[in-house]
Amino acid sequence: MKNCSVLLLLAALGAATTWAAAREVSLRLLAFDAATARPGGMAHDPSAKQALPAVAAPIKDYLNHEAVRIQLTGVEVLFSKSGDPAEAAKPDQRIASATLPATGSQFLILFLPGADGTARTLVVDDSTRAFPPGSYQIFNLSRQPVRLVLENKPFEFAPGKSGVIQDPPVQENQHSAMYAFSQVDSKWQRIGSGLWPHPGTRRSLQVFYDHPGTGRTQLKGFRDVAPPAPPAAE
Asked: What is the DSSP secondary-structure string of the chain?
């Protein structure tokens, strides 16, 4: 009886250690386009030693306050069409996987078109410290250097680089004259122009990418909602 009690105690301690090592993360999921959206997506923790229940993780092509909360024992998240952990990673069920930073609890995951019906993922720190209200976050997923000009102020991004433009310059009407360029054969070619409103209390995600059909660099934006205000101190 004593040996049985010891074994039960060790098992309980092991379970408590595993639970303590897990962290809860909040994930907002964004599809790059309607074809990449997966409203029935499920999120799994592939690092868990024992299979854990999947969490509903709809992948939509717009942003709002909705977030998926999941307990993770590692840094990987697996997204699948199936809620069954035994089936989730199978090629016909797998949607994508994402590697999160080892620290932090709020992330935005952008799902980009991939091969064979799967998606590639881009993980963005979704905290207001890294992505403040009133800012644009720019990602250059193109193979070319790009330049964004707001009210004659240039911002350049090398391939694979990103940056935050906080409180962008604007005219009296609270809009910025925007010009976008891609560098081809050492020459800057304009790829877009328009008027961008100041984000105000909101945020905006802007992505440079190469069109899969033409290979030309394009710019696509996603307007975000205002992040929730922190709770008032008691």
From this structure: -HHHHHHHHHHHHHHHHHHHH-EEEEEEEEESSGGG-BTT-EEE-TT-SS----EE--BBSS--S--EEEEESSSEEEEES-S-TTTTTSTTTEEEEEE--SS-SEEEEEEEE-STT-EEEEEEE-STTTS-TTEEEEEE-SSS-EEEEETTEEEEE-TT-EEEEES----TTSEEEEEEEEEETTEEEEEEEEEEE--TTSEEEEEEEE-TTT--EEEEEEEPPPPPPPPPP-
What's the CA gap between 31 and 89, in Å, rounded?
A: 20
Contact partners, residue 63, CB within 8 Å, separation at least 6: 28, 30, 108, 205, 222, 223, 224, 225
- The torsion angle over the Cα atoms of residues 219, 62, 137 and 154, rounded to 10 degrees, is 30
Contact present, 96 and 119 (Cβ < 8 Å)? yes
Give the model's pLDDT for residue 230: 55
pLDDT of residue 21: 66
* Cα–Cα distance, 86 to 31 (Å, whole number): 25
Strand partners, 137: 164, 205
pLDDT at 49: 87
**What are the 10-residue block averages of pLDDT along the chain, 234 residues in total?**
43 44 92 95 94 93 93 96 95 96 96 90 96 96 97 97 96 96 96 95 96 94 80 47
Contact assessment for residue 62 and residue 85, using Cβ atoms and an 8 Å cutoff: no
Which pLDDT score, from 0 to 100, does residue 22 have?
A: 82
Q: What is the DSSP letter of 224?
A: P
